[in-house]
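Weekly modeling sync, notes
Attendees: S.R. (lead), two postdocs, one rotation student

Agenda item 3: backlog of single-chain predictions. S.R. asked that every request posted to the team notebook include the full sequence so nobody has to chase files. The rotation student volunteered to paste the first one in as an example of the format we agreed on. Action items at the bottom.

Example entry:
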Amino acid sequence: MRCHLVTLGCAKNLADSEGIGVLLTEAGHHLVETPDRAEVIIVNTCGFLQPAREEAISVLRELSAGKEAGQLLVAAGCMIEGYADQLQQAVSGLDGLIGTRQWTEMPNFLAELARRKPEDRWQPYVRPPSERNHVADSVSRQAQGTTAYLKIADGCSAPCAFCTIPAIKGSQRSKPPRHVLAEARQLAEQGVQEIVLVAQDLTAYGRDRGEKDALPPLLDALVEAVPTVPWIRLLYAYPGHVSDRLIETIAQHEQICNYLDMPLQHASESVLKRMRRPHNMERVRRFYESLRRTVPDVALRTTFIVGYPGETETEFQELLDFMAEVRFDRVGIFPYSQEPGTPAADLAGQVPDEIKQERHERAMLWQQSISLSRNQEQVGRVYLVLVDGAGDGISLCRSYRDAPEVDGFVVVEGTLPLGQFVRVRIAGAMEYDLLGEPEARAAGG
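Predicted structure, as returned to the notebook:
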């Protein structure tokens, strides 16, 4: 069958969608670029927050309204795990639902849909739950560009009071190292220039198998397995799980980008306690000091939630003060979302939406000045950058300081070769982006 894939949500969903595409191709199906050419339309949904669920429903409704006779519409991914009933009520024209823990069964699932009797097709078929651990499966990889995401674990065992991920994806399940290395080798053979390791918590890798601090040896093996891949990037570490050995491993290997995304979620110890998050902020401060001593040019990214239940103006100010103290290169800031079924949803002191929004805007403006200052410090430096896109006389590039999808660009005048590395000198800075010139052009005046 001809299949069209739509991916919503985060990098982990992108990795799953790529795996789905490879499985479908291996099973004899054909991927097409547009829904009008497809016999099956598959939407890989995100169910993490209410806005993500609303987006999924909107996209599915639009696709359902445009369905042609005989087309099948499948909702897949995170939203199916906890909101299948809501989807069925909100979207008419759904033919099937399959959860995020079952995507390796997609070819069999489509075969089941195709075998259904016409009189049964008015009701969408929901794939029964499975205890199968799909991260243990070895899945072939087919790179879609010069950057590829490699999921090394799925699910989460952290007790965060605001988060739905454990309910949606289950407990942490680590992919066996041999499968991680096999996927990385396939990506390297296909010319990938950047492998981005993703998981809900990279630093919990192996803990579900009783291993402690298993990420550094995995990185050592990965560097040895794919020596031709220039960049290996780490996304999503967990406070308290980052070890001295991991810092040393990042510093030791040139391939591993000097970049760390460790979502802190807040900086007030009292708020962090209510979040059920690690709350020893002195330890966090010592960690960042140690990291910057060992890896002086490290780029730091984090994420904060504002307007968490009970957050006072004093606690919010603690967050702003901490941001000014650490001076993160990149910060994602989100208003708290009251998610049904989470412990935080029932906490007293729910912050009014208008206050959440006002604090979000203040925090964003606060970080803009910090980000601009950090970017201005880069002016005059020379960076190796990866060319991500070009058009209208400019090229959009990324240095090791810029993760795909979430960070800024090094903007260079002229058309540079896509997917290639070039050396540029930083000539100017904005709040989120840098302006660069190819080093040869800059040297030649």
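Discussion: group reviewed the output briefly. The chain has a mean pLDDT of 91.
Action items: rotation student to repeat for the remaining queue; S.R. to check formatting next week.
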